[in-house]
Structures are given as structure tokens and as C-alpha cells.
Design a protein that fits this description.
7 helices; alpha+beta; 290 residues; single chain; three-stranded antiparallel beta sheet; T-fold
């Protein structure tokens, strides 16, 4: 809990654990609104359930109307698709399923890595409308958890709870008036930290090769143009004003250097490479342990 004496509301949603801390306990009505927001997000974007909107797009091409949040996700993914040369793509879902990260969590690859289909000619994303010309497995996991944290933060503010702290299994949104000290998990040992940073108002999100890892060196951060797991980066952190942007940039750091992202995003960042060296922006304030 970030502040002693605050109340904690914990639940599971979209495959992860959520902890929401507030100065006083949330009402039953506000808790239900939060859980409903999580259920609605899952019903739209989950590729792990057959009744989601995304699952329908995986079965047949067509025109699909998604929730309002899609209007922000689309341009963000389009920008990062361009900046990474197609390495970061919402069409990575089929590649993940091919390597065993599928709805049944088989964790058994069907063959060698499979590149994601190119965005152009397959997917047209205009606002909240997706139009596909072939069945595609869309996966917005690189930004979705952060966006859902933003949506829950907005629900809390609408409910009169302006100060709150959201922890979505390490993806953090701080709407409190005080900064929070956050330990940075060691990419090879979850029981250790490689440093500590101070999170003021805004979001801090992480991506790591040791999370959602299986089989012989497989993990969930795949390079879209090859379909293979990234080997050069093992962990990254990004700070931004919103959880959606911080979450997406933490994944993008696996494919492109932080200074390139800074040209188009207001963010700070830290990247840990597989050879042990770290790179970070000057304003990523904190302490890295030696």
C-alpha cells in the first residue's frame, strides 16, 4: 500500500491482479462501477474468450465497432508501428498464439516463429471502427492494461475520489498528491530490485522478458516482423502522464531507443539490455543499484 492508513480494494481482472488504494474505503456502488468497467473492457478486447469483439474479428473479416477507448488506442499503435518499423503491432496476436500463448494457455508452439501480417491492406482502424479484409488476431496487451488503469482512475474521479493509487501488477497510476517510492524489479530475480524511483502524479509501467515466459526461452514480447521474442532487451520502464502511453512505451523500448520515443512522446524511461548495461533518460529520477 503506497500510503499507511489508506484503504485497499483488490480484485482480479483481464488476467492480472489489481490493487486500488484510496484515503477512505470505496462505497459498494463505486466498487461495482469499477468492476463493470473491467468486465466491459475484457468483453471488447480479450483474445482469450470466444465472445469478445476481438474474437469475432479473428473468425471472419468485417466491420467492427469498438468502445470509445479504441479511438485513442488506434493512433497510439499507428505511431509506434511507424517508429518501430512494424516491430510493435496490434496484429501480433496470431504470432503469440502460434508460439503457444493462446486462449487455452497450451504453451506449446505450433512451429517456428510466425511474423505478424502487415497493417496496410489487412486492417483499417478509424476511430472506434475496425475494418478487416481477413481474419486477424488483434492483441492490444502492450497498451491495454495501462488504458484500463486510466479508465478506472477516471471512474474514481467521477465518484469524487480525486486521490488514489492504482497498481495493476506493477503498472502504476498515481493520482495522489504525494509521490510514491517504487522498487524496480530485477529482470532475473523477482525477489530483488535493481533500483528505486519516485512516482509523482502520472503513470509508471514496466515490461519484462521474465513475465509471461514459457518453453525454451519464449516470452510475450515478440518482434512483429519476425514473430520471434526479443533477445536484446530484458526489461524496461516508462513514465508518462497516462497509463496507456506509459504501458505502450515500455513495450516500445524493446524495439527502439528511448531518445527516439522522446521525439514524439513526453516521457522518461529506463531500458535494461541482455548484456547487463542500462540506458535511461536524464529525468528518470531515482537510484539504480550497482
Amino acid at each position: 500500500m503506497p500510503h499507511p492508513g489508506w484503504a485497499d480494494f483488490s480484485f482480479d481482472g483481464i488476467g492480472t491482479r489489481w490493487d486500488i488504494s484510496t484515503p477512505s474505503p470505496l462505497s459498494g456502488a463505486l466498487r461495482r462501477r469499477l468492476l463493470d468497467a473491467v468486465a466491459d473492457y475484457d468483453a471488447a478486447w480479450s483474445r482469450f474468450r470466444p465472445d469478445s469483439l476481438i474474437a469475432a474479428a479473428a473468425r471472419q473479416p468485417g466491420r467492427y465497432t469498438l468502445p470509445a477507448g479504441a479511438a485513442a488506442l488506434g493512433p497510439l499503435y499507428a505511431t509506434l508501428y511507424r517508429l518501430t518499423g512494424g516491430a510493435m503491432t496490434p496484429l501480433i496476436g496470431g504470432s503469440l498464439e502460434h508460439l503457444g500463448y493462446d486462449a487455452g494457455y497450451s504453451l506449446r508452439p505450433s512451429g517456428p516463429p510466425l511474423p505478424a501480417p502487415p497493417w496496410d491492406g489487412v486492417l483499417d482502424w478509424q476511430g472506434t471502427v475496425l475494418t478487416t479484409c481477413a481474419p486477424v488476431v488483434i492483441d492490444v496487451g502492450a497498451a491495454g492494461k495501462g488504458q484500463l488503469a486510466d479508465l478506472l482512475s477516471a471512474e474514481l474521479r467521477d465518484g469524487g475520489i480525486s486521490e488514489h493509487f492504482i497498481d495493476a501488477s506493477g503498472d502504476l497510476v498515481n493520482a495522489g498528491s504525494l509521490p510514491v517510492k517504487v522498487g524496480l524489479e530485477h529482470p532475473y530475480d523477482p525477489a530483488r530490485a535493481i533500483g528505486i524511483v519516485s512516482l509523482g502524479a502520472g503513470a509508471l509501467c514496466a515490461s519484462a522478458a521474465n513475465r509471461r515466459a514459457w518453453g525454451d526461452g519464449l516470452h510475450h514480447v515478440l518482434e512483429g516482423t519476425t514473430g520471434a521474442p526479443v533477445r536484446t532487451v530484458v526489461a524496461s520502464w516508462a513514465m508518462a502522464a497516462s497509463g496507456m502511453v506509459a504501458d505502450a512505451l515500455a513495450t516500445a523500448l524493446f524495439f527502439v531507443e528511448g531518445p527516439r520515443l522522446r521525439e514524439e512522446f513526453d516521457c522518461s524511461w529506463l531500458t535494461v539490455h541482455s548484456d547487463g548495461h542500462a540506458e535511461y533518460s536524464a529525468d528518470f529520477e531515482g537510484v539504480l543499484f550497482t
